[in-house]
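Let's sit down with a protein and look at its sequence and fold side by side. Please make up or recall a protein chain and show it to me in full. Label the sequence line and the structure token line clearly, so we can match residues to local backbone shapes. Go ahead whenever you are ready, and we will take it from there.
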Amino acid sequence: MIALPRLDLDLEALRVLVLIADLGSISAAARAERISQPAASKRIKVLESRLRLELLDRRSHGAVLTAHGRMVTEWSRRVVEAADALLTGASTLSEQATSKIRIGASQTVAEYLVPRWLAEFRQRTPGTPVHFLVGSSAMVIDAVRGREIDLGFVETPQLPTDLSSQPVAQDRLVLVVGPAHRLARRRIPLPAGELAQLPLVTRQQGSGTRETLELAVGAPMADPALELETNAAVKIAAAAGELGAVLSELVVSQELRDGRLVEVPLADIDLTRRWHAIWRGDTQWRGALADFRTLIADWSRSPQPPTPPS
């Protein structure tokens, strides 16, 4: 196959050539393009130079297409039509992309903050579609990296360095057990070393709650006695048996009030954590996504602490 030279063609010059063929003169083509006649003539001359072909027969009363010019014009027409289709399609895709938001959140944030944000967002921008992913902090981070979502909210204390982040709220983890557990009536705070060896029911690996606990303890922890995927499942397992659990105080607030779970005091360990928004550095803040980010920024500047359901 013969290797053809690559030419840096000016799409606007091709457009002018097509207009000359359709409108009958350089001046008419220039008016249609809203440029001066000398500018239109220069574009055609540069195009002729690059193609090494004479496209116009310039005469005292005007210019007409040469035989080569007519052939090149038909090819140019296809290029111009294809470029217009590309630009129209891309514009449509851009409008569709900026008319919806794609967000994700780890479970505790999804339960206690995102519903509040979405309710306010729908009041501000009614009818805006929302794609909402719920999973572990690790899943949300992967979804942001993989461009499945544009904005994520996570609980993990170890934020990825390749993503941008901003704190949005904070909460506190608590150790809870069922009423029949041996620690249910303990009044002396449990040291971190004992907590590390306590049989626990936990969320799966990649959970922000689990990572916060492991980092705060600062010592090797016993393997989880049971790993479950949701906060609700962890609560049920802890309330029903002999295993403790460490969860957000928001998650267990109702169970603590009605006695299904009991909080065990802790010593020498800080389980306060921050929740963060994360996004890619190249995220385009436009349309609905920009509106949602503004809402989060407004909320973060004067946040109301997440409140448990009554």
